[in-house]
Specification:
Elements (H helix, E strand, L loop, with lengths): L15 E2 H6 L12 E2 L5 E4 L6 H5 L9 E3 L1 H7 L6 H5 L9 E5 L10 E5 L7 E4 L2 E4 L1 H9 L6 H12 L15 H10 L6 H10 L7 H12 L6 E7 L5 E8 L4 E6 L6 H16 L3 E6 H5 L2 H14 L5
Parallel strand pairs: 5-6, 11-12
Antiparallel strand pairs: 1-3, 2-3, 4-5, 7-8, 9-10, 10-11
Length: 315
């Protein structure tokens, strides 16, 4: 039995269209060999090599139709902090399939694709590595209209997009400013999801480093606790800045969320020093971890209320 000759180097590690294959000298027989997967008509994928989502979806946008990567596929490209099964790809109807939007009378219809139809303005589309993708703002609006994301989920995504700070060793730059997102939402005509998006942007804050910090802040806010500010800057006894995940300046309480990386000996030493600096500045520190969160909102709120009362809160 004849062995299929190697694919051209430029097609050996990425998805490609039948037309690209022909232009590169791949015969119809070679395009049907066992080392090539056929996910959908006109598309060929080399078996084995790992490829990025943009490489995977590129040929779908190069078939002569004006299709744009959108919804959950665009969210993955933009690295949105999606919740649960959506982030981990357990939802076959939303995460694993490719989402494409077409302007016109009909949505894309092909195997492996969830098609959408919408009028996209030029500003709604960005070109990333040659692939048309809905912009961050438009993608957020589309997701808000799916009904699959809660208000809190959208705030988590927005907080991550606008996060910006100069924390020592861990500076971050916003991918979009909160004002830009709010301006976009304010300029749109009423569509499904717009009201929810606007409400989420009203709750978003700059400086939040992780989804658990967002969810804790929102929990505190709807539970009648004093105001907590994300990424609050406290000066220690030496006048050196100390960044707090969630700070309540009124009652001088610092709430820190510690994820799994805080279990290492090096990080535990750093955390102990952080606590000393916080106490030395006249504040109290309360650490909330993953186990606290798993115990539920009531458990977390009881711990925070006790700490606040110890700081003079009359609630």
């Amino acid at each position: 039995m004849a062995t299929a000759k190697p694919l051209p180097e430029d097609l050996a590690a990425r998805s490609f269209t039948i037309r690209e294959g022909r232009l590169s000298g791949i015969s119809p027989w070679r395009a049907k060999a066992k080392d090539i997967h056929v996910p959908s008509r006109g598309i060929r994928v080399p078996v084995g090599p790992q490829q990025s989502l943009l490489d995977r979806v590129r040929p779908y946008t190069d078939l002569g139709t004006p299709d744009t990567v959108s919804y959950y596929s665009a969210a993955a490209v933009h690295a949105f902090k999606l919740p649960g099964s959506l982030a981990e790809g357990r939802s076959t109807t939303r995460s694993n399939l490719l989402h494409l939007t077409r302007a016109g009378s009909a949505a894309p219809r092909r195997k492996g694709v969830v098609g959408h139809r919408a009028m996209l303005e030029p500003a709604d589309i960005v070109i990333l590595e040659g692939v048309p993708v809905t912009s961050i703002s438009r993608t957020l609006l589309d997701l808000a209209g799916t009904g699959a994301l809660t208000l809190e989920d959208l705030v988590v995504i927005a907080d991550d997009l606008v996060c910006e700070h100069v924390r020592y060793l861990h500076p971050r730059t916003a991918r979009m400013t909160l004002e830009e997102l709010q301006r976009y939402a304010g300029s749109r005509r009423p569509v499904t999801g717009l009201r929810l998006l606007r409400k989420s942007l009203g709750l978003a804050r700059v400086g939040v480093d992780s989804p658990p910090e967002t969810r804790l802040r929102l929990l505190f806010g709807r539970s009648g606790l004093p105001a907590f500010e994300p990424n609050y800057v406290l000066l220690d006894e030496q006048g050196t800045p100390l960044w707090i995940d969630l700070g309540c300046p009124e009652f001088q309480l610092a709430v820190e969320y510690d994820g799994g990386h805080h279990l290492t000996p090096e990080q535990q030493l750093a955390d102990a020093l952080r606590n000393e600096r916080t106490v030395g500045a006249g504040w109290r520190q309360l650490v909330i971890n993953k186990l606290d969160v798993r115990n539920g909102d009531d458990w977390v709120l009881t711990r925070v209320r006790q700490a606040l009362r110890g700081q003079g809160w009359p609630g």
